[in-house]
Amino acid sequence: MDDPKISNQAELLNLLHQECNLFYCLAALNTTYYHLFNSILLSSTSYLLLLCRMCLVRMRQEGREGKYMCRYIVHSMWEDVEQRSKIMGIDAFHRKESMKAMTETFYAAIFGYDEGILSDDCVLAAALWRNLFNRQCEDPRQLELMVEYVRKQMQFIDALDGEDLLLTGEVKWRPLVEENAQSILKVATPTYNVAGL
């Protein structure tokens, strides 16, 4: 990423860190998230882990800057978890134990989602059933809907321009249900970040 507006490495790293925080916040607050709660009643933590993983898969394709963003997206996620647990009044000992358990859950989910994204729909469905639905999905249509959602969202994210993605820190999230599935490939022109890039 060679931008004449960015004069040195420290400035670039600072900008990428800001974009990672924005990227994470937009993932955590996206409107599809609320629609999913109303229609499928998913766990907010499980869904956020899925969104983060989809973003991380895409960011890894962007070389050194992408790997840097991956680290800081995950860092932003753990900072958010830490802050929320403090607000909830969880003492330091229990917070540390909970963070350890959540870290294990996160890495297990990453492994399952990676295997599912790279494999067929049956493997992805199994990963979603274990990690997103917490092995409690009574309606197979909901699981099928989520498999379709992950596939179309990954296809959409993969179609985004890498440099625009790094500069804006923003991913558009597809609606859970779309009338015109062909719209998946139509990527909107981005609006650049707060630094004016």
From TrEMBL:
<protein>
    <submittedName>
        <fullName>Ubiquinol-cytochrome c reductase complex assembly factor 1</fullName>
    </submittedName>
</protein>
<keyword id="KW-0812">Transmembrane</keyword>
<dbReference type="Pfam" id="PF03981">
    <property type="entry name" value="Ubiq_cyt_C_chap"/>
</dbReference>
<feature type="domain" description="Ubiquinol-cytochrome c chaperone">
    <location>
        <begin position="48"/>
        <end position="169"/>
    </location>
</feature>
<dbReference type="GO" id="GO:0005739">
    <property type="term" value="C:mitochondrion"/>
</dbReference>
<dbReference type="InterPro" id="IPR007129">
    <property type="entry name" value="Ubiqinol_cyt_c_chaperone_CPB3"/>
</dbReference>
<dbReference type="GO" id="GO:0034551">
    <property type="term" value="P:mitochondrial respiratory chain complex III assembly"/>
</dbReference>
<dbReference type="InterPro" id="IPR021150">
    <property type="entry name" value="Ubiq_cyt_c_chap"/>
</dbReference>
<feature type="transmembrane region" description="Helical">
    <location>
        <begin position="36"/>
        <end position="56"/>
    </location>
</feature>
<comment type="similarity">
    <text>Belongs to the CBP3 family.</text>
</comment>
<keyword id="KW-0472">Membrane</keyword>
<keyword id="KW-1133">Transmembrane helix</keyword>
